[in-house]
Amino acid sequence: MAVVELLNLNNVVFRTYVFWTGVLVLKMFAMSALTAVKRFKTKTFANPEDLMSPKLKVKFDDPDVERVRRAHRNDLENILPFFIIGLLYTLTNPSTFLAVNLFRAVGISRIVHTLVYAVVVVPQPARALAFFVALGSTAYMALQVVAAAF
């Protein structure tokens, strides 16, 4: 199948990849907003010009702010590789059923990861399960891309 046919919104695999990529970009934008909300709520600001009062001091160690920042960093470490490998996986002309469900698994598990890590803290293994579902799905796609390139 030609690249033009694979990277076309008429291709269910590509359309699903595009959808979940868009959802995850919006989710990452929401993490920036959630960080800002936590900073204002706790009056924890990292830059002197952001201080809302001369009584406040620059602070880097609020546990709530740092939890959200760690969740956001985890997104950057895991969602960005998905963006690349998911697109390359689409080019391997994978099974529609498998590809659609891998993309869904990554998207849903990354959302769940954020919810149980930064929004409503849930004890382990909730976060680990969400993390490993996305990691496993992305790793599987990466292996398929490498195998297809051989």
TrEMBL record:
<feature type="transmembrane region" description="Helical">
    <location>
        <begin position="79"/>
        <end position="96"/>
    </location>
</feature>
<dbReference type="GO" id="GO:0004364">
    <property type="term" value="F:glutathione transferase activity"/>
</dbReference>
<feature type="transmembrane region" description="Helical">
    <location>
        <begin position="129"/>
        <end position="149"/>
    </location>
</feature>
<comment type="subunit">
    <text>Homotrimer; The trimer binds only one molecule of glutathione.</text>
</comment>
<keyword id="KW-0812">Transmembrane</keyword>
<dbReference type="Pfam" id="PF01124">
    <property type="entry name" value="MAPEG"/>
</dbReference>
<keyword id="KW-0496">Mitochondrion</keyword>
<comment type="function">
    <text>Conjugation of reduced glutathione to a wide number of exogenous and endogenous hydrophobic electrophiles.</text>
</comment>
<feature type="transmembrane region" description="Helical">
    <location>
        <begin position="102"/>
        <end position="122"/>
    </location>
</feature>
<dbReference type="InterPro" id="IPR040162">
    <property type="entry name" value="MGST1-like"/>
</dbReference>
<keyword id="KW-0472">Membrane</keyword>
<dbReference type="GO" id="GO:0005741">
    <property type="term" value="C:mitochondrial outer membrane"/>
</dbReference>
<dbReference type="GO" id="GO:0005789">
    <property type="term" value="C:endoplasmic reticulum membrane"/>
</dbReference>
<protein>
    <recommendedName>
        <fullName>Microsomal glutathione S-transferase 1</fullName>
        <ecNumber>2.5.1.18</ecNumber>
    </recommendedName>
</protein>
<keyword id="KW-1133">Transmembrane helix</keyword>
<keyword id="KW-0007">Acetylation</keyword>
<keyword id="KW-0256">Endoplasmic reticulum</keyword>
<keyword id="KW-0808">Transferase</keyword>
<dbReference type="InterPro" id="IPR023352">
    <property type="entry name" value="MAPEG-like_dom_sf"/>
</dbReference>
<keyword id="KW-1000">Mitochondrion outer membrane</keyword>
<feature type="transmembrane region" description="Helical">
    <location>
        <begin position="17"/>
        <end position="37"/>
    </location>
</feature>
<dbReference type="InterPro" id="IPR001129">
    <property type="entry name" value="Membr-assoc_MAPEG"/>
</dbReference>
<comment type="similarity">
    <text>Belongs to the MAPEG family.</text>
</comment>
